[in-house]
């Protein structure tokens, strides 16, 4: 019997014995960046993992934008920096004042740091940046599922930035697209942010979109 059929059969058995739990309404945390919130479906899922993958440009810009948004909302946020590539000079002093920066040497260490921070339960939003980590794709699936269970218990939102889709337990997944040239170095940050595009696809447990019907959302 296929695994999916076994899961359905188990759910039916639990329901018949009155042991099934009712699905909770999805709650979201607004990141404060309207285009990203829209791409993820009215914000980042509380108690779930959201994945933002970007294979080329735009990742560092997205991190800076998220930190600035958190500062405007007077919200503290953790940045788990898997490849120790974050440049503090890329954000304003107000953003740094609301930031807990965890510097790691690889993806494995970053996932362990996320485990500890989420168990602590004092931060509503945790960012884990695995872009630039040579071992990002080697993080075992069971580690992500364990992290998902911890996120559910904490009620926090976990946003993972990855070089490509790789998190099996992600509730929703969004691709970040951007192409910049040397001429763009002369443009200000707001203009660069306006050039970013999001492509939203559905993953298991997500709502509202389908991977077969991607949608592009331009940042305005």
Biggest β-sheet: strands ordered side by side in the sheet:
5-4-6-7-3-8-9-10
**Overall average residue pLDDT:** 84
Question: Mind summarizing the main beta sheet?
Answer: 8 strands, mixed
Let me know the number of strands.
10
Approximately how much beta-strand content do the residues carry? Answer: 15-25%
SSE pattern, N- to C-terminal: HEHEEHEHEHEHEEHEE
Describe it.
With 220 residues, the protein is of the alpha/beta class. 33% of the residues lie in helices and 21% in strands. The longest helix is centred in the first third of the chain and has 14 residues. The protein is globular. It starts with a helix and ends with a strand.
Short description:
With 220 residues, the chain is of the alpha/beta class. Helices cover 33% and strands 21% of the residues. It has helices at 3-16, 34-39, 59-72, 93-97, 107-120, 141-154, 189-194; strands at residues 28-29, 44-45, 48-53, 77-81, 99-103, 125-129, 157-162, 172-177, 197-202, 215-218.
Please render the helix and strand layout as text.
Blueprint: H1 3-16, E1 28-29, H2 34-39, E2 44-45, E3 48-53, H3 59-72, E4 77-81, H4 93-97, E5 99-103, H5 107-120, E6 125-129, H6 141-154, E7 157-162, E8 172-177, H7 189-194, E9 197-202, E10 215-218
Parallel strand pairs: 3-7, 3-8, 4-5, 4-6, 6-7
Antiparallel strand pairs: 1-2, 8-9, 9-10
Helix pairs in contact: 5-6
């Amino acid at each position: 019997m296929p695994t999916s059929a076994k899961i359905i059969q188990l759910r039916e058995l639990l329901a018949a014995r009155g042991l099934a739990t009712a699905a909770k309404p999805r709650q979201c945390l607004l990141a404060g960046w309207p285009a990203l919130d829209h791409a993820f479906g009215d914000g980042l899922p509380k108690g779930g993992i959201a994945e933002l993958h970007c294979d080329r440009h735009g990742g560092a810009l997205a991190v800076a934008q998220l930190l600035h948004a958190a500062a405007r909302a007077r919200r503290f946020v953790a940045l788990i920096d898997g490849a120790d590539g974050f440049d503090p000079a890329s954000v304003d002093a107000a953003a740094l004042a609301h930031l807990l920066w965890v510097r790691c040497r690889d993806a494995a260490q970053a996932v362990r740091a996320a485990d500890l921070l989420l168990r602590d339960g004092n931060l509503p939003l945790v960012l884990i940046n695995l872009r630039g980590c040579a071992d990002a794709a080697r993080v075992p699936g069971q580690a992500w599922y364990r992290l998902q269970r911890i996120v559910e218990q904490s009620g926090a939102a976990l946003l993972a930035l990855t070089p490509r889709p790789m998190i099996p337990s992600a509730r929703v997944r969004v691709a970040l697209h951007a192409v910049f040239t040397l001429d763009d170095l002369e443009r200000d940050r707001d203009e660069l942010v306006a050039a970013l595009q999001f492509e939203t696809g559905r993953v298991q447990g997500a709502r509202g979109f389908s991977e077969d019907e991607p949608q592009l959302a331009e940042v305005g």
